[in-house]
Records
---
Amino acid sequence: MCYLVICDCPRATNEALVDYQKSVTLAPDVQGAIAGLAITYHAMGNVDEALKLWEELIEKDQRYMDWEWLVEEHHWLPPLVDEARILIEKLSNPS
């Protein structure tokens, strides 16, 4: 599984996107891959796609609304958790 480290490096982010897309294609039921793809989309500014994927995760497992659980479950670095918290906030308080 690849891990995206959110940075100001478009090449690394694009590589993460390709890796997560492949992961989801090969294993569409692996929630960690779907979460990583959603986070990557969000980091790249594709908010609608990120929210759509995150909503699908929540339908399968409500714990995806809990960023603290994400830290424990996925061992994400703070920048990933920050992106997840933003997604969770957007879904909790739609405008």
---
Amino acid sequence: MNDKTKAKEISAAHRKLPMSELESAAIRQHLAANGLETPLQKCDVRIINRRTRLLDEGNLLTKHHFDRLTEIGVLSDDSKKYINSITTTQEKVKTNEEESLIIEFIFL
């Protein structure tokens, strides 16, 4: 299994968790269980926002997400030294229960 496959499996597992349950210890534990050490090394980041009401493109990415990932130790820093590229997409869902924010890390 390569790192890109691991990233997809980790993000698929996160899809099942509501954002309220994604606490820092749980994220680090989940990454470690999948063979990934934190802080993560150089990577591409893909953010998928699943919402009942789609956002304007300029509102898809907030610095808050990266500040929080740095604060809890998932990323060393949110600079270009550690993040090669950021891609954002959004998907329309029918119910509030389906709403989620998925952050995928693709390792170089």
